[in-house]
Structure of MBL fold metallo-hydrolase:
Amino acid sequence: MLKDSGHLLERDAEFANRHGYSKHKPALPLYTVADAESAIRHIEAVDFRKAFSPIDGVTAQMFPAGHILGAAMIRLNQGETSILFSGDLGRPDDPIMLEPEARLLADYLVVESTYGNRKHDDVDPEVSLTETVTATVKRGGTVIVPAFAVGRAQSLLYYLHRLKKKKALPDVPIFLDSPMAVDASEIFCRHLGDHKLAAGECRELCATAHYVRGAEESKALDRQAMPSIIISASGMATGGRILHHLKALASDERNTILLTGFQASGTRGAQLLAGSRQLSIHGQVVPVNASIEAMHMLSAHADADEIIRWLTPGGHRPRQTFVVHGEVSASDTLCHRIRTELSWEAQAPEYAETFNL
């Protein structure tokens, strides 16, 4: 995945230099394929629950966090003191991923708060997806889906496969246009014990979409006359092939842009969610006439109630809980709930703030 990401960054930089829209002269990738390959040589795989020592005097264990394939929470122990980092927490009822490991005992706890001030919609994703696709196809349009390559793309394929099997969707082609998402989907089928899908289900899920690998085939999607569903990274429309699809298709009122997860402040996805009718892409102002729909219930992050439920069992109260990885309002809201509902010591650290444990 690192190499795929490095390749995308190189392509984005090359495209920016060729078209001259970057303020940097020349535009450079954040990291390259060579950088990724160098970093990968220093990565060592460790099984869940196996104790290891990342530095002298400290032991660590990783446990399933249920967010995406391989997502882990980590507990560090030094002498008599322990600290647990939740990492990105998954949801207890996700149709694909196993639920997060129960909260482990630790003296200190660092917990994420991406959705610390929100509860996910309880609308059935299949109903919402059917309505959006059907309405768009009826207009003769295409559904453009910015999606995270690992996790969200596979969740979408899962629901689309179920709907196609029930013949609940119009018969339109589905394209997965993200080399990283293609690779991730194939990895799912090689790690059957790490999710809920059986081998046959995984193969069927992966066969739901046509995999787009080459750049020319990706460009051709924007020129086709027939309605379709295009799933492409990145999930917040900050880079990747989705930008080319948005630039070509967002101005057409027949189309729909379907947002399927958290959209961080300042991203194009957040602008669309807020109702913006134009986007800046590759130095151009692109009008947005397409319909904008959102399916927040597809998020792979636990919502506020689910985080509280994960924290609650066991009766063990950490000495201190640090609420992180959320926008200020989300972190502060979750922090308040932890204090009032669980009667724990909790705080949301500010940037670069330090603590002695």
The chain has three domains: 2-40, 52-119+301-347, 125-298.
